[in-house]
Write the structure tokens for this entry.
Amino acid sequence: MEKMRILDSHTHMPSIRWKKNTDFFKSVSAAVDYLKSTGVDKAIFNTWQGVLSETPEDVDEGNKEALEMAAQSKGFLYPGVSMNPDFPEESLKWLVRFHEFGFRWAGELLTYKIETLKSTCKYNDPAFVKLIEKCAELKFIVQLHVEPEIVDLAQMFPKLTIICSHIADDDFLNRLARFNNTYLDISGMGGGLHIGRLEKTIEILGTDRLLFGSDFTGYDPQAFIGRVKKTVPDTKKQNDIFCNNLTRLMASVGVNI
């Protein structure tokens, strides 16, 4: 029987040189080794400095490091571009550069500050929409932290594939389900790890719109692997969540992952 591939669609790598780095792992190689040891075969990621950027320099350094890490991992890590609407010039520069290298993933993209959990703008604000317009033009898949305005973007950009990170409440899931260009990764304590939430998500969205994700290095992928295997006993549907749904989406933008 062929081994089931597990592709983690939601990870972040430690930014060792970043002055705000507090990661458990003291090197990128240690984080990669741990991720592999959990059974993950490949991971989409951006750096913590990139995703939590507070300055233009953070955007530059986070994306530069992501490309370096991807090259050093010899195919294990697939980089997502980090963008921040507070720094549109730097964000668009890196989006174009990732496109030139053949990468087609943006995110996870945040608009809130980690210290306050307050947003500088919403996903449907003009400053952020301008970044999404370019993502749509360049045929990127966009991964966004769970926020209600995701459905506004899904309606504005019906040909853009949007990944919602984390499982929200039932009302939001039902709104998300109405847009066929939206998918959901199961990462995060409130969603993937709480018994009953993954079950309800499958009831509303089905298994063909779910992606495996862990939010590593914040969470241990083994916990999410266990939840999928317990909740979805059908191995074909497990394969869809662990691998097939993501490979299909990436193929739609010309990427073999």
Q: What stands out?
A: The chain has a mean pLDDT of 95.
